[in-house]
Amino acid sequence: MATTEMTSANFTSTISENDIVLVDFWADWCGPCKRFAPVFEKASEANTDIVFGKLDTEAHGDVAGGLGISSIPTIMAFREGVLVFNQAGALNGAQLDQVITAVKELDMEAVHAEVRAAQAGQGGAAAQ
């Protein structure tokens, strides 16, 4: 599967409508982004069960800013709508494969329980 262009218009729906989504935040002027692009593309072809999206931070700064992207490339992985990986800097093929394997092997019941606990803690702290 080729990579998908992610935009301000389709970012949220892409994350929510797919089990696993890896997003490469990049810009045309970014040398490391250009070197990482073939690694990301190759991984997308080898993992057709995952959505691989690319978001141009220059064209869609609202999304990048909202997620706190301050360096590119940044790679984020979402599973069942939850951000489970976030790292700035280009990865090599082996590193990206490790991330993909780890994301696939996550115990999502435990992850969702942690999210619920964190949200309950935030709500409780605000009420005090």
Descriptive labels:
single chain; 128 residues; alpha/beta; Glutaredoxin; five-stranded mixed sheet; globular
Q: What does this entry look like structurally?
A:
The mean pLDDT is 92. The radius of gyration is 15 Å and the shape is globular. The protein is 48% helix and 23% strand. With 128 residues, it is an alpha/beta fold. A five-stranded mixed sheet has the order 1-3-2-4-5, sandwiched between helices. It has one domain (4-127): Glutaredoxin. It has helices at 11-17, 31-46, 61-66, 93-104, 108-127; strands at 4-6, 20-26, 51-56, 74-79, 82-88.
Structural classification: alpha/beta
Biggest pleated-sheet summary: 5 strands, mixed
Please tell me the overall pLDDT.
92
Do you know the CATH architecture?
3-Layer(aba) Sandwich
- Could you say how many structural domains there are in total? 1
> CA-to-CA gap between the ends?
49 Å
CATH homologous group name: Glutaredoxin
Spell the H/E element sequence. Answer: EHEHEHEEHH
Shape: globular
Which stretches are low in confidence, meaning pLDDT under 50 for 5 or more residues running? none
CATH level 1 name: Alpha Beta
Domain Thioredoxin: 1-105
Pfam families: Thioredoxin (PF00085)
GO cellular component, one term: cytosol
Keywords: Disulfide bond, Electron transport, Redox-active center, Transport
